[in-house]
Amino acid sequence: MGVTYLHARNEMVGARKGYGLTGYGAAFDKKVSKVSALEQATIVDEEGWDGQKQSEAYQQYLTETAVRERQQPYSSAAVLAYIATGKIEGLTFITLSPHDFEAGKLLVEEAGGKVDLFRRSGTEYVESRFDVVASNGIIHDRLLEVSGKKREK
């Protein structure tokens, strides 16, 4: 089970594996958005707490092509809840701990989106830190491609 409270919107969004989304507060979609082109998507691009940055090529792509928020005033769980409820289409985060993303990951997956986790290398907390790429699922492969992330086979 995962639950996230979105204070700024006075909404609570929750999910239980296999049961979809539920929520309280303002009306929201219980599915991810249907935006199908990365160039029309809203993407949150967050740097790591340890100063790690996204690749220059990815940052340039987002600057020139996609709509993007550079700074994020919410927690990673809240941003994942925004994907789950169709308010934004994707995110790329660097160096998150499982307690930062597990509830939101469940929300996104139960709403029909996708989340990929990539172990961090070269950081002090390699075993407990991940890069996270999440989306509405429709733009996921393209977001992975432009962010330079590759799934392990």
Keyword list:
alpha/beta, 153 residues, 4 helices, 8 strands, five-stranded mixed β-sheet, three-stranded antiparallel β-sheet
Short description:
The protein contains 4 helices and 8 strands. The protein has 153 residues and is an alpha/beta fold.
Description:
Strand 1 (2-6) and strand 2 (11-15) form a beta hairpin. The chain has helices at residues 56-64, 76-84, 98-110, 140-147; strands spanning 2-6, 11-15, 21-24, 42-46, 67-69, 90-96, 114-119, 130-135. With 153 residues, the chain is an alpha/beta fold. Helix 2 runs parallel beside helix 3 (98-110). It starts with a strand and ends in a 6-residue tail after the last helix. The protein is globular and about 40 Å long.
* Broad shape: globular
Contiguous runs where pLDDT drops below 50 for at least 5 residues = none
The average pLDDT value, as a whole number, equals: 79
What is the percent of helical residues? 25-40%
Spatial arrangement of strands, main beta sheet: 5-4-6-8-7
SS-derived structural category: alpha/beta
The H-and-E topology, N to C, reads as: EEEEHEHEHEEH
Radius of gyration: 15 Å
Distance between the termini: 28 Å
Oligomer: single chain
